[in-house]
Amino acid sequence: MLEVTNLKVHFTTRQGTGRAVDGVSFHLDRGETLGLVGESGCGKSITALSIIGLHPRPASRIVGGEIELDGESILTLSKREMRKVRGERISMILQDPLTSLNPVLTIGKQVGEPLRLHRNMDKAASRNRVIELLRQLHIPEPESKLGDHPHQFSGGMRQRVVGAISLAADPDLLIADEPTTALDVTIQAAFLAHLKAVQRARGLAILFITHDFSIIAKMCDRVAVMYAGKIVETGPTAELLSDPKHPYTQALLESVPSVDRGTERLHSIGGSPPSIYDLPKGCTFEPRCPHAMDRCRESYPLRFEVADDHSASCWLLE
Amino acid sequence: MSRPDPIIGVRDLKKHFPVGGGTLLPGRGRKLLHAVDGVTFNLHARETLSLVGESGSGKTTTARMILRLITPTSGRVVFEGEDVANLRGAGLKHFRASVQAVFQDPWSSLNPRKRAESIIAEPMVINQPLPKEELRARVEELLAAVGLGPAVMRHYPHEFSGGMRQRIAVARALALNPSVIILDEPVSALDVSIRAQIMNLLRDLQETFHISYLLIAHDLATVRYLSDRVAVMYLGRLVEVAPSEELFENPLHPYTQALIAGSRSTTMVDEEAARLLASDIPSPVKPPSGCAFYARCPVSVAAKSDDPTFYERTVTERPGLIEVRPGHLVACHQFDPKD
């Protein structure tokens, strides 16, 4: 349904050209959840924002590649057409529920807005739909909450309201950018369960952006690991987590503590990710890679298929 | 816990903040926010005790009282056998030097106008003046302990990455040879690949310098990796205290169980449990008179119809912290021998 091919998003600033997204390709089918993992600054959020055309402008620009929704390019759409796509087919949940709601508008108005703008519903119909949406996300007594303002809600409830807004117009694709990082663990578990239930009911495709592998394991069918603007490995979740092929994925998994794992010493990755303004000529992970070879310094590795639907970009796999 | 002489003992510690009411007419409409509501635990030599809990559970307020940054409403913090509130002069100075802290955000905990060298040297300049040469040698030694070379001394905080800044904050905390370091979310502001570096560093330093850590964290994976014992807080109260391994393998309190289930990569909570968990956390301004967790607790909610007497108890009677196994304490009516 969503097909991203060789997407490149560059930033132009006084520091020069920053290759934030540097040739990213992936696809996402209906009813499927793809996890996009990586550290901050690896380009995962910019990738997501550029899909709905909200990457920061004029600082950044899509300089190459293609984004197709059901076979049609959305990069060539006019502003007006893009607005329609954003409202009706793709929606997004952002990280912080506190800042993504308008503090001076009532909950009813905010959840109902996409319905009136994109589904041409009248007041009464949208009111009923809003109540239904809030009920689906387990907001207690939704009828009495329509006139409330965001500050009257707790963080977990606010994130459910944001969820209700993004699902209001019944989109085909939901982009969730770290939707639970600001939430407490128990509230997070509840929110993820709700999201999964809605997905099952509607066949929604979800692009889930996170740096938390325990969430990936729970939520995603497939995972794409990003490093310095590129996808370095992608594959089915269980397989990628148990048998990672790229040295970065391996190192990342070994460096993350987990509740299931205990106190066995973690292997940390030395150094830090490269600056997007000064990427190495060869493999971007080479300076931190324990297996680096001469060849890695010279050219960026090709993508090698290691199993069905599982591939990684590393010369070791040749 | 019958182990002798804890380094720090916390005894029925409470902190109630006044909220509401005008500042001009205090008293009117004034309510109390029960941030910490009767917390008791010990921190022993060379151990890592973690305080875990979600936002608003009172873990940071507890730490600030231990550091004597805020005054408790009631209760005591005992350091090496003495009530911290009564410390004056040399005693207080000794306490301040012995109990250090590393905070969450290395971007705001280092003075941007000072070089790394003076940041790390400052505690020594204040507490134990050394000749210039010795001071510099000591700073170099501390930098080496946290894995940094002497070259960083001349640089300012903005020139460092998050991981390096946190190392500098740790070096500063080590400067006066403390016996206790309070780590308030020491890795949660850092990038995933950097966290392991800092966690391993903290473990190594504990080994080398025999420090006790009081770790405050919400991420249970971090807690499991670093702790010997874990204390779980909910709404200003301790609900469970146990050795780390025991707590993660065999959590008894329904709240601890929910926390651990939420952090595991394998378990997905079902719809019913999710609805219950998502229900609202009671306000610390009007804490429930019974168990703080009853409204979100599957056991209590199930008892509503099956066992009304038990349900009534969870609503009205505050459960005490009971030792159910050596070193494993839990505050839950299910484990109260009165039943």
How would you explain this protein's 3D organization?
The complex is a heterodimer of chains A (318) and B (339). In chain A, strand 9 (222-227) and strand 10 form a beta hairpin. Chain A has helices at 44-51, 79-88, 107-118, 123-136, 142-145, 155-168, 185-202, 213-219, 237-242, 247-255, 294-298; strands spanning 2-13, 16-28, 33-37, 60-69, 72-73, 90-93, 173-177, 205-210, 222-227, 230-236, 303-307, 310-313. With 318 residues, chain A is α/β, with parallel strands linked by helices. Chain A contains eleven helices and twelve strands. Chain A is globular, with a radius of gyration of 21 Å. In chain A, the strands form two sheets. In chain A, strands 6-7-8-3-9-10-12-11 form an eight-stranded mixed β-sheet, with helices on both faces. A four-stranded antiparallel β-sheet of chain A has the order 2-1-4-5. Chain B has 339 residues and is of the alpha/beta class. Chain B is 37% helix and 22% strand. Chain B has helices spanning 59-66, 89-98, 116-127, 132-145, 162-174, 192-209, 220-226, 244-249, 254-263, 271-278, 298-306, 308-316, and strands spanning 8-19, 31-43, 48-52, 74-79, 82-83, 99-102, 180-184, 212-217, 229-234, 237-243, 322-325, 328-330. An eight-stranded mixed β-sheet of chain B has the order 6-7-8-3-9-10-12-11, with helices on both faces. In chain B, strand 7 (180-184), helix 6 (192-209) and strand 8 (212-217) form a beta-alpha-beta unit. The mean pLDDT of chain B is 90. Chains A and B meet through helix 6, helix 7, helix 8 and helix 10 of A and helix 6, helix 7, helix 8, helix 9 and helix 10 of B.
Give a short summary of the structure:
Chain A is of the alpha/beta class.
